[in-house]
Amino acid sequence: AADGPMPQTREHILLARQVGVPALVVFMNKVDMVDDPELLDLVEMEVRELLSSYQFPGDDIPIIKGSALCALEDRDPEKGRNAILELMKAVDEYIPQPERPIDRPFLMPIEDVFSISGRGTVVTGRVERGIVKVGEEVEIVGIKPTVKTVVTGVEMFRKLLDQGQAGDNIGALLRGTKREDVERGQVLAKPGSITPHTKFKAEAYILTKEEGGRHTPFFTNYRPQFYFRTTDVTGVVELPEGTEMVMPGDNVSMDVTLIAPIAMDDGLRFAIREGGRTVGAGVVAKITA
């Protein structure tokens, strides 16, 4: 509240837009540091304009004003406890219940891999779509050659389940799979439902300097990391004929060649990163190889 929207606020809104977050609720924090109600109104207007500039409905989004510190220290309930309750009420009422894409073929990006002595290898992640049942055959796709395995157990919050479904965070026990055969960045998927690729046409937006992005343009043969689901893969960029360079703030079509294959289908979103810093965001428009 005292400082207005920070540069990272802008980046968070941009990333929310790029990854398809359908709705937002805003909590304007630290209102205990501001005595002037007019200043709060100005900051609210600034936030609404910022939201609108990224194609969110800035005029309609609930903005709750409060102080997390007051809530933690249990003082000034109007700014503290009540504001947090109002925030949760706004989230419940304004944010739509997400649809779980349960009827589509099973896919889970692998976030972590563990070895459990006497049981085998467990991969963990959030099921992106579909259902996986104990005893079903799955493929491990991406980075390395595709291999088949069988899910011999599904666990969620330390409970053994018969199946995992879209939206669940699960651990899947894999039959006969060695710890070193699987890595973060691969996906577990219904056999034949997704294939690994290295070349695609992309539509991307390159962040401006103010959004925390690059300060300089890039050219053909630019080699950033492309962050898909759970991992970075280096890729080489080729710009379309007639495009000499890409400036920060540009929207661009480009051809990308990855140094390792990634499980992908058209419409998959990615971030463009340099040394862990996000410099752009985009979507796979068309797989070419």
Describe the structure.
There is one protein chain. The chain is an alpha+beta fold. The protein has 3 domains: 7-94, P-loop containing nucleotide triphosphate hydrolases (Rossmann fold), CATH 3.40.50; 107-189, Elongation Factor Tu (Ef-tu), domain 3 (Beta Barrel); 195-287, Translation factors (Elongation Factor Tu (Ef-tu), domain 3, Beta Barrel), CATH 2.40.30.10. The chain contains 4 helices and 18 strands. Strands 3, 4, 5, 7, 8, 9, 11 and 12 form an 8-stranded antiparallel β-sheet that branches. A 6-stranded antiparallel β-barrel has the order 13-16-15-14-17-18.
Shape: globular
Q: Under CATH, the topology of the largest domain is which?
A: Elongation Factor Tu (Ef-tu), domain 3
Helix fraction, binned, reads 10-25%
| CATH homologous superfamily classification of the largest domain | Translation factors
Main pleated sheet: 8 strands, antiparallel
Structural class: alpha+beta
Proportion of residues in extended strands: 35-45%
Question: H/E series, N to C?
Answer: HEHEHHEEEEEEEEEEEEEEEE
CATH class of the largest domain: Mainly Beta
Number of domains: 3
Low-confidence stretches: none
Kindly report how far apart the N and C termini lie.
Answer: 49 Å
